[in-house]
Design goal:
The chain is mainly beta and 225 residues long. The chain has one helix spanning 70-94; strands spanning 107-108, 118-121, 128-138, 143-153, 156-164, 170-171, 185-187, 191-199, 206-211, 217-223. The model has no long low-confidence stretch (mean pLDDT 76).
Length: 225
């Protein structure tokens, strides 16, 4: 028994055309735009795999050496030191200064043979001269003595000391109020030195000693209380 085959669908009117009623909707024409160059940072990197994130940009300053602040610190320290020196100088200059000590100035005598006073000779016999106490003035603390020393032969170096006749303590002269102070020094042959000495001793008879610059005794005179 044979079956009749069903008739197949009729072929389309034309193999290259769509069926009637299935035509696509017409599309609006796309305006022409010039193609702009792609920015360098958006271009694909041929050395990087697709989808790999682009590395963060690195600035050249990141590789610079750290700044050295040592010169600035040295400059600040120098300015501070200079300020301290200036302030210290102002403070020092503002402080009262002690009055300068005036020493006796030797004078030359034309006729030493007529000089008064007690003769003296150095321990080695090379130097000789004459000396005397011209005046003395006592106060509540001690005594001021005016002395004259003359060099007859050689250069005389001199110093002074004293002690109370009732004691054994030796006293050196201290700064006093009378000028010029005699203290220690030297005078050339033919010269004379006149000046003042002050001793802090109790008021009683005192022995005044004339010594060399090295402290060796040459002569002594009594100063009355």
């Amino acid at each position: 028994m044979s079956h009749s085959s069903w008739p197949s669908d009729p072929p389309p009117p034309h193999p290259q055309q769509p069926w009637p009623g299935n035509y696509p909707a017409p599309q609006a024409p796309v305006p022409w735009r010039p193609q702009l160059p792609t920015p360098a940072d958006e271009r694909p990197d041929p050395t990087r795999a697709l989808g790999q994130q682009q590395p963060a940009s690195v600035h050249i300053d990141a590789f610079a050496a750290p700044k050295n602040h040592t010169p600035l610190l040295v400059t600040i320290a120098a300015l501070v030191a200079l300020a301290l020196v200036i302030v210290g100088g102002i403070v020092i200059n503002a402080q009262p200064r002690p009055a300068p000590t005036v020493s006796a100035t030797p004078t030359r005598v034309s006729s030493p043979d007529n000089l008064p006073g007690l003769p003296f000779t150095s321990p080695d016999g090379r130097v000789s001269g004459r000396w005397e106490v011209l005046s003395s003035r006592w106060d509540s603390e001690g005594v001021t003595v005016q002395v004259r020393v003359h060099a007859v032969d050689g250069t005389v170096t001199y110093s002074f000391m004293a002690f109370a006749n009732q004691g054994a303590t030796v006293h050196d002269p201290v700064p006093g109020s009378s000028r010029p102070e005699l203290g220690t020094g030297q005078i050339a042959e033919g010269d004379t030195a006149i000046g003042y000495l002050y001793f802090e001793v109790p008021r009683e008879d005192m022995t005044l000693i004339l010594a060399t610059g090295a402290g060796r005794q040459m002569s002594a005179l009594v100063v009355k209380a």
